[in-house]
Amino acid sequence: MSYPRSIEEFKAVLQGGGVRPTMFQVEMNFPEAVVVDPTQSTNEGTYLIKASNLPAANVGFVEVPFRGRKLKVSGDRTFDDWSVTVTNDVTFGLRKGFEKWSELIQNMNYVLGATELNDYFATAIVRQLDRDGNQLRAYKFEGIWPTAVDQIDLDMDTNDTVEEFGVTFKVQYWSAVDEGDPFTTGVPANVSSDKNIINS
């Protein structure tokens, strides 16, 4: 049997030179009660969300015993938390948005919060792009809400860097976005609009 061994054979299989982890775009949709203009907040996120991930696929299993052995059959599907890392600018625009979203879920000072799920559930799309900025694949996260808005570290010894912070979301489910999906566009959002406005 002949086994592939040359770099030319490898090059023929690795189409497009491989997918780059830097080529992606996140479109974050805030609840309407949090932002004044959802389109503007989505556009700001496409620039300032600097890290994310494509989702894992998890199917549980059930062990059924039989005469000293165990047959493993499929169980229920679970969905991991999803997280992003955000670059902070001087407007604190996205930071304020995530904080208001968190406070909408449960008030900072009172044990009160949203009573309708649709008031704080939202969606997000992660798009994997090629080196020309064209979409290769997209994933849509449904029913997300922030369970943690991370701290921003302040340190006088920290030079030559820009502040950033993480946000972790609970996810009801995700799905791969197909062409013609009626609930989302097949192309990235227009990212040319102004900064977002956060409801006070």
Report on this model:
The chain is α+β, with helices and mostly antiparallel strands. The protein is 18% helix and 34% strand. The strands form two sheets. Strands 1, 2, 5, 6, 7, 8 and 9 form a seven-stranded antiparallel sheet that branches. A two-stranded antiparallel ribbon has the order 3-4. The radius of gyration is 21 Å and the shape is globular. Residues 191-198 have low confidence and may be disordered.
Distance, first to last CA: 69 Å
Number of strands: 9
The parts where pLDDT drops under 50 for at least 5 residues are 191-198
Biggest sheet descriptor:
7 strands, antiparallel
Topology pattern, helix = H, strand = E: HEHEEEEHHEEEE
Spatial shape: globular
Helix/strand-derived category reads: alpha+beta
> What is the residue-mean pLDDT, rounded to a whole number?
87
What is the number of helices?
A: 4
Beta-strand content estimate: 25-35%
Write a brief caption for the model:
By secondary structure, the protein is of the alpha+beta class.
List keywords for this structure.
alpha+beta; seven-stranded antiparallel sheet; two-stranded antiparallel ribbon; 34% strand
Topology of helices and strands:
Elements: H1 7-13, E1 24-28, H2 38-48, E2 49-51, E3 58-66, E4 69-78, E5 82-87, H3 93-105, H4 117-120, E6 122-129, E7 135-149, E8 164-170, E9 173-176
Antiparallel strand pairs: 1-6, 2-5, 3-4, 5-8, 6-7, 7-8, 7-9
